[in-house]
Amino acid sequence: MTEWSDAFTLIVYDNKPRPVLTVSPSWLSPGASVTLNCEVEHPSAGWRFYWYKTVPDLSHNSYSYELLPGSSSGTEQDSYIVHGQTHTAGYVCRAGRGDRVYYTQYSEPSLSGLGGEFIFVLSLIIPCFSDLHPAASLTVNPDRVQHFTSDSVSLSCEGNSAEWRLKRFTDKDLLDCSEWGTITGSTCNIHRLQEGDAVYWCESQSGEFSNAVNITGQTKDIILVSPVHPVTKGDPVTLGCKLTTTELDSNVFFYHNDKLIQNDTRQELNISAVSKSDEGFYKCECSGKESRQSWVAVKSLESSFPVPVLGGLLSGIVMIILLFLLCHYKKAK
């Protein structure tokens, strides 16, 4: 007589690793080369790496991925160089190995600081701050980093596209404007800010990404008034201090990288022409209350001609002048 044991169900989970995508350098200028690195947990031999550009799919609130040149069969190197980066772009990576290719998941979201603004890796959004003609831009009204949570804030997307999606990323979630604000055309209106830090940007169906901005919702009674976007070297900038309920009726203290730089009845800190040394963290203090600190970034105004092009242009002009002088000399003889 044959005896059988009780039946049971065996569930096998396919625990695919998820690589992490990083970028260098973190601060970009037009035409710069960008190096992407794809890191797999517990790396071993045999992995090939696949590199993609992200394209927003507004109708499905998702992203599609387009393979970058030269990576259709994967690369043995875990790094990939994007040459001549001129506009904001999004990227992801994944790895695969074996004859019947076993793929990892796509790289997961991560966040790292970038001169007061941020790189978002989901998509890796790279704000090219010194690009004189960005594909798209995000404006904030009122134009400041810190806001009281009771404030109303408007964020507007501007660019060539007729349709935009405005995204918000925090340490907890990635959401559309429709989930935390109201949309009017290409503007998202927030009637009550979430407490804490969040990164906002715009993206279009055609694959354009705007600059990313950091906005902080504060429950404190005091905030620092500082610009959302980097300030161009040589331009003036004004920082302020703001209380929720009362006017500023005592001395206002302004700090740069925790060093006191102004202490008097003036309610604003005016810098007539900012330089790179003015870049850093600022905060203010008044009536025994201290604001959070915010980063003020300073950028250089780049030439609209890449250096090689400008050099070639100057060389051409010099050659024309020399030829003209030579012809004039021969004619005189």
Please write the string of helix (H) and strand (E) elements: EEEEEEEEEEEEEEEEEEEEEEEEEEEEEH
Domain module tally: 2
- Largest sheet features: 5 strands, mixed
Task: Give the overall shape.
Answer: elongated
| Helix content class | under 10%
Structural notes for this entry:
The protein contains one helix and 29 strands. The longest helix has 26 residues. The protein folds into two domains: 106 residues, Immunoglobulins (Immunoglobulin-like, Sandwich), CATH 2.60.40.10; 164 residues, Immunoglobulin-like. About 11% of the residues have low confidence. Helices cover 8% and strands 44% of the residues. It has 333 residues and is mainly beta. The strands form eight sheets. The protein has a five-stranded mixed beta sheet with strand order 12-19-18-14-15, with no helix packed on it. Strands 23, 24, 26, 27 and 28 form a five-stranded antiparallel beta sheet that branches. Pfam families: Ig_3. Keywords: Disulfide bond, Membrane, Signal, Transmembrane, Transmembrane helix. One of its GO terms (molecular function) is transmembrane signaling receptor activity.
